[in-house]
């Protein structure tokens, strides 16, 4: 066991019997949770996170000569609100919370592995809520407002069903038409798995070999576009791919970064409890910086497809 882990184990053991140690331990869990949330969150890549200074307003300049519209999510669970005039966008912030508990006996025994497992569960809760809010903003922007920014990657004229080079090219061209540059694409693991079937008739031998050796494209990207897997099928289905120019698409103001506290009621049940909260918002500042590709719904079960 490393020296750092020994110190963490001793800190965890002190939590079982010392009220001040338990409070300090809970308040320092944010430094554990935030890297986990950062690593899992797709919306922190799509929207630009900006930590607000104390007392600062979450206002962002918008030029409607540059974008068709802007918009924001008014609250968690709310509906996307479109803005079509003015010279700035105000993005409200709202709370995202999560928490977890474990037996005080786990702390007394210094079971760092089990305590960290609960921290991962809390991070998952925060990430899931961020994803829900962020993607509600994205899909709200595409729903009825700029649905023309969808490319259809199926049908008799093209007759391709998989996530193929043709699909990527169609997204790139559509984004170019919108005078933006595609740099991030988000899709399901099954759709990204189509890359493994790319033949040497569509890519050179060395690229095909790299795909087979690496289990996918080296760096999971092509032509400067990073491919990102989204495991939640409620967010991205096998029949869709979402692409962004993340340089301009949207903002994620952070009024209060992820902060952790002791759950004061947990000890009454002989448990150690940690609760976490942040104040964030999501807004679209450039409606032209997104494109969606619709794949044939059967592409993951199609034996062959045109690459």
Largest sheet: 7 strands, mixed
Run of helices and strands: HHHHEEEEEEHHEHEHHEEEEEEE
CA distance, first residue to last residue: 51 Å
**Quick one: how many beta strands?**
15
**Count of DSSP H/I helices:** 9
CATH topology: phage-related protein like fold
What Rg, in angstroms, do the CA atoms define? 23 Å
CATH class: Alpha Beta
Helix content percent band: 25-40%
CATH-derived architecture: Alpha-Beta Complex
Low-pLDDT stretches are 303-307
State the domain count. Answer: 1
Secondary-structure topology with pairs:
Layout: H1 3-15, H2 19-27, H3 30-40, H4 43-46, E1 48-51, E2 59-61, E3 70-72, E4 81-83, E5 88-90, E6 94-103, H5 104-108, H6 112-142, E7 150-153, H7 165-177, E8 184-187, H8 189-192, H9 205-214, E9 221-222, E10 225-229, E11 240-244, E12 250-262, E13 271-280, E14 283-284, E15 290-295
Parallel strand pairs: 1-12, 7-15, 8-10
Antiparallel strand pairs: 2-5, 3-4, 3-14, 6-13, 8-11, 9-10, 11-15, 12-13, 12-14
Helix pairs in contact: 1-2, 3-6
Task: Explain the overall architecture.
The chain is of the alpha+beta class. It has one domain (3-301): Alpha-Beta Complex (phage-related protein like fold). It has nine helices and 15 strands. It has helices spanning 3-15, 19-27, 30-40, 43-46, 104-108, 112-142, 165-177, 189-192, 205-214, and strands at residues 48-51, 59-61, 70-72, 81-83, 88-90, 94-103, 150-153, 184-187, 221-222, 225-229, 240-244, 250-262, 271-280, 283-284, 290-295. The strands form three sheets. Strands 1, 3, 4, 6, 12, 13 and 14 form a seven-stranded mixed β-sheet that branches. β3 (70-72) and β4 (81-83) form a beta hairpin. α1 (3-15) packs across α2 (19-27) and α3 (30-40) packs across α6. The longest helix is centred in the middle third of the chain and has 31 residues, at 112-142. The protein starts with a helix and ends in a 12-residue tail after the last strand. The model is unreliable at 303-307 (pLDDT under 50).
